[in-house]
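G., before I forget:
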Amino acid sequence: MNKFIDKIVNTLSSIKTAILLLILIILASGIGTFIPQGLPHYEYLPVGQAGIRRFNEPAYRLLRLFGFTDIYHSWWFIVLLILLWCSIFICTFRRLPLQRKTFPTFITHLGLLLILLGALITGIFGEKGFMLIYEKHNQDTYIDADNKFKTLDFKIYLDDFSIDYYDDAKEPARPGASAGTGFIKDFSSKVVILKQDKEILKETIEVNRPLKYKGYSFYQASYDQDNFKWTGLDVVRDPGVPFVWSGFILLNLGVILRFYFLPAGRQAGRQA
Amino acid sequence: MNITYFNLALCGYFLAGCGYLIVTIFKTQNFFRSATIIFTMSFVSHTAYVFERWLVAKRPPFVGMYESVIFFSWAIALVYLLMQRLNKARPLAIPLSLSVVLLLGFASLLDSSIKPLMPALKSNWLIIHVTSYFIGYAGMAISFLASIRYLFQRASNSPLALDLDSLSFRLVAFSFPFLTIGLTTGSVWAKVAWGAYWSWDPKETWALISWFIYAVYLHQRLLKNWQGKKAACLNIIGFLCVLFTFFGVNYLLKGLHSYL
């Protein structure tokens, strides 16, 4: 048994394996951009939406069987990512002693490990949903990706929803435009967070300025286009985010140190 | 929008390219400096155009394909001039001038109307994300030219071939951190704007694929002593992925980035 584990660890510690895994991930990811992902079954068939690649029923069944209609969530894709993680882990800790010379490379790989770990945490513990609030009403429930209703232990009250248009008289959407072009400059929701009818927080949610409270984030996503009576917020709770952010910092620090600050001698790759 | 600076830049780059061509055909090395001066003046005009557009549009000129191509070609000229200061760019003078001229020519065929900034793009992240990516792309583009020129060399160990090989690697090493910054800031911005740091959107996916390929390139170069032809081919594949990320995704696929 020990010999078997040794063999696996040895295979995973080779750069060749890492590169092979990367190539497989690249291929799978690329294919996923050409085949529509995660759509309901009828969208793939000839009578589906215009512009989407269509297949006949047997072809669709075949693709779905092997996970090609939802590649990024298929078990084999996730296994590839986990194997990549193990490969980076073993390579890093086996081959990169923590010295001044190898420090940048070490933290680059550590960053990658954290990012992938964060992604796994997001996949397992992340929550995502949609919340609709009518103007001058409360809301404490959102609908998640599996179409289940989830209730929060606080309420959000929509005080006001507003849309700003580019006022062509004062600030043209396009220079020289005289008539109303009707382009939207910004849309936002003025909300109040209530806990047991007590006002906790007042904020304006805009695109690029989400509201954060108790681990949840609320993003301005959509609105009632007919009567402007409700606002649509995307609700997200993602405990994986701090890992991903730390990973990003280490990754960037690592590549910058490695390629801009390492002494010239390490810049190999030159023909002798 | 006044395109005088654009026209001056385009003509200037073309003249510089002709100048470089004369240097090669007639072997008049002294003329090289003059051609580079013309190139530099074109770059100044190009810069003026970028800033003028920024002022007129009242936002950074990074929206839409026209502005992207203008800025991309600007970044290529910038990186080239930086290389010139370090005396490294001679073998690439002609293909580079030609590329910049072609890019500006392509831009002139696009819709150059000034588009308003959509709510999703109103963010400080716009500047750092787009700028790092275009500088990174520019470096990779020049590296691509070096690799292509390398493959045309008959002797793989002539001084020119060795120079091109070394140049192509160092440009990838220079550009890779910029791609990394671009990719990660894009992800952070996506979280702020759309709630998720990764959605496997085609643009994101192909940007990641490009990044992976250059990562493989760097590993093969540094750890497996890849040189010459093998390295050049991988480099070319990497840049083809960059081209697909930049243009292919917008014109051939659908996704969140469809307004670029």
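Residues 35 and 69 of chain A are 7 Å apart (CA to CA). Chain A has a mean pLDDT of 88.

More on Monday.
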